[in-house]
Write a structure and sequence with these properties.
The chain is an alpha+beta fold. It has six helices and ten strands; from the N terminus they run βββαββαβααβαββαβ. Helix 4 packs across helix 6. The protein starts with 10 loop residues before the first strand and ends in a 5-residue tail after the last strand.
Length: 256
């Protein structure tokens, strides 16, 4: 990702499995609130083949500096030609590609080819420009789907557990918090989770909130990435059915 073009917005990174291996996507999550932008109807996909590439298709540590330099140079040149918005970067099978939305495609291909050939001649480059008025590249490819977003949210908690010495192999008590608009919707949700073996740890009403009815539940569960994400996604979807919001989970650290 070009650091000079990523000064605004909420950026996040996720890994996903594709047909021929793992890929890494860095994406501006905030663009979901404004996409598509009518003034930026074209998508430019450009980048290079990674020279110092690991067996898993990702760059070696020392290669990142060069890749950032290339992205920054591309971004600076584009800003001289047209209005642009960096939507994300995709790294896969020894390629690192920036996805940029632009308002005008005049001279872009020629200018980028000249830039690559003169300043980064050691790299094989890629330039693809196409109409994308509906921002499908961002909305359908770069932006994470519901399941991936759940993994991303849970990864932050799991990382904290691992940093504390937890190997995530043991089941343990997991606490969950939810909020509902009405007492009735909370009770309807409770009927569902009680059948699933959850215990009620606490209930409260918080003033000044659109979702004032708080619910704290718990159950003993595994916390591996797949298992905890499957669980939290189910709780989130069920809460939404009852006009509620799932607010996350926490648990204790278990060390050997």
């Amino acid at each position: 990702m070009s650091e000079s073009l990523a000064q605004s917005g909420k950026w996040d990174v996720y890994m996903a499995q594709y047909e021929n291996g793992s890929g890494s996507t860095t994406v501006n999550m905030d663009l979901i609130n404004s996409a598509p932008k009518a003034e930026l109807p074209f998508v430019l996909i450009t980048g290079v083949t990674i020279e110092n590439c690991r067996d898993d298709g990702f760059p070696n540590a020392e290669e990142f500096k060069n890749l950032y330099e290339i992205s920054d140079a591309v971004g600076e040149r584009l800003q001289e030609l047209t209005k642009i918005e960096l939507a994300g970067t995709f790294t896969y099978r020894c390629e690192r590609l920036d996805y940029l939305y632009v308002s005008d495609t005049s001279l872009i291909r020629e200018e980028l080819i000249t830039l690559y050939q003169t300043k980064f001649a050691a790299y094989k480059y890629y330039v693809n420009i196409k109409t994308d008025a509906h921002w499908e590249a961002y909305l359908q490819f770069l932006y994470p789907n519901e399941v991936t977003q759940e993994y991303m949210a849970n990864e932050k908690v799991l990382m904290q557990l691992q940093q504390a010495g937890d190997d995530l192999t043991k089941s343990r008590k997991v606490d969950h918090w939810l909020y509902f608009a009405t007492e009735e919707s909370k009770k309807m949700f409770l009927k569902y989770v009680k059948k699933k073996g959850f215990r009620v740890e606490g209930e409260d009403k918080i003033g000044g909130s659109e979702l004032p009815f708080q619910l704290h539940i718990s159950r003993n569960d595994p916390v591996s990435p797949n298992e905890i994400s499957s669980l939290t996604l189910d709780l989130r979807r069920r809460a939404e059915e009852f006009k509620g919001d799932y607010d996350g989970w926490e648990t204790i650290v278990i060390k050997e």
